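pls design
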């Protein structure tokens, strides 16, 4: 492992530790200072905000991959064109979203969260506006990842997370509610974007966003992969973002809290494993671009083997120790019941197993079939959630998510990843079972 890769992974886990501590500190404060109903409304606002990823038209990962590919080929001028074109695109997009939020948020809030107050609607509009304003600056965090400086990008994110926790805790303990929370959340996002911009331009001065560097050929080259990533973004938003909205609409804010707090715990457990894999995406893209398929295959097998071990351990710990931890952490009122909790454990297990395949497809831009099935998965999940929430409550919503994933990308992701790296199912199975960690290419030869 090179120093650069090691630093990227280490800083990713530093940021993860900070991110892990954040909900441990904040969620009890949310529940005690806001109450279950108001906290549930905040979760609905965050759920609405999650759909803003769709507005980016799937371009974030496409831009990151293209920058990583150009960096691997040492094409600085191409990186400059990508950054300038993308920056001005996001400026236009940010103005469009902010204007639309001012007009549409009251109607959407009344429709999707009918129990929400006027202040909750104002908080939602502020949350959307701040998120959109950070779009152009977020590009420079993507630039840092693309040039394999994930360490700097994650260090900025860690500091921003610390500031966010301190700010949110301060305003809630002072008796402030949703509007103040939205302002703090948004201000921290903007501050992190400014820091990423300053550091990225120091490392890569050619990344200044000049209009004369904008290129239609960049737009054309990014269009196809962006549409694929857009499909994944829509699918992910509908699969996970819709759950809180469905529960909030059908069962109320308190039910959202009982569902979302243990789900957050499951997502933290998943993130423990995914953080290191995500940090390796730019390096994986660069190796794949250079034609180093043996290293990519070796890494996929090694991470897949680890995912099985981790999934078994994390799911067992979550299922058996999770209820006691939740009672100690935020009190007995947030436990969703054994059926819901069991389905959340199943979702945790499946999500961890799919992380290595997801990483390969995302980093190598072999994501088109994945995106198409993600849309099918999202539609199936939404339909089942709306149906089953009426009969089974929150357990039905999680069961819908698990069922939709199993019949779509649950089987497709591993198969597509193996095709992308040129391995057969038999070779992969033999490599997983092999006690050694040697090169797959060497074994095949």
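designed seq:
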């Amino acid at each position: 492992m090179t120093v650069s890769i090691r630093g990227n992974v280490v800083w990713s886990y530093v940021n993860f530790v900070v991110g892990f501590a954040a909900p441990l500190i904040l969620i009890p404060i949310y529940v005690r200072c806001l109450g279950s109903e108001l906290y549930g409304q905040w979760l609905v606002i965050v759920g609405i905000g999650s759909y803003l990823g769709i507005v980016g038209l799937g371009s974030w990962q496409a831009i990151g991959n293209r920058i990583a590919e150009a960096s691997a080929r040492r094409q600085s001028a191409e990186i400059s064109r990508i950054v300038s074109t993308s920056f001005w695109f996001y400026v236009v997009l940010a103005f469009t979203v902010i204007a639309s939020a001012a007009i549409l948020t009251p109607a959407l809030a009344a429709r999707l969260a009918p129990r929400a107050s006027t202040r909750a609607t104002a908080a939602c509009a502020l949350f959307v506006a701040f998120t959109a304003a950070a779009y152009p600056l977020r590009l420079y965090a993507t630039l840092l990842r693309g040039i394999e400086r994930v360490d700097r990008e994650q260090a900025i994110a860690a500091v921003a997370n610390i500031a966010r926790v301190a700010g949110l805790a301060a305003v809630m303990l002072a008796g402030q509610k949703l509007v103040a929370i939205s302002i703090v959340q948004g201000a921290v996002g903007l501050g992190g974007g400014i820091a990423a911009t300053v550091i990225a331009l120091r490392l890569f001065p050619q990344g200044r966003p000049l209009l004369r560097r904008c290129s239609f050929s960049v737009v054309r080259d990014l269009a196809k992969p962006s549409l694929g990533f857009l499909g994944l973004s829509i699918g992910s938003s509908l699969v996970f973002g819709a759950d809180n909205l469905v529960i909030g609409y059908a069962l109320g804010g308190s039910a959202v809290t009982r569902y979302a707090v243990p789900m957050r715990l499951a997502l933290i457990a998943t993130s423990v494993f995914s953080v290191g894999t995500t940090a390796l995406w730019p390096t994986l893209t660069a190796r794949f671009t250079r034609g180093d398929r043996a290293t990519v295959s070796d890494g996929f097998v090694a991470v897949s083997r680890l995912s099985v071990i981790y999934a078994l351990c994390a799911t067992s710990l979550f299922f058996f120790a999770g209820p006691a931890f939740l009672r100690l952490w935020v009190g007995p009122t947030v436990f969703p019941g054994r059926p819901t909790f069991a389905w959340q454990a199943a979702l945790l297990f499946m999500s961890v197993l799919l992380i290595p395949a997801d990483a390969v497809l995302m980093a190598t831009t072999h994501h088109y079939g994945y995106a198409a099935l993600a849309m099918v998965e999202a539609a199936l999940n939404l339909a089942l959630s709306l149906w089953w929430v009426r009969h089974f409550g929150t357990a039905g919503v999680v069961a819908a998510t698990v069922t939709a994933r199993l019949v779509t990308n649950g089987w497709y992701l591993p198969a597509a990843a193996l095709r992308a790296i040129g391995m057969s199912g038999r070779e992969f199975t033999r490599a997983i079972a092999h006690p050694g960690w040697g090169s797959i290419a060497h074994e095949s030869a």
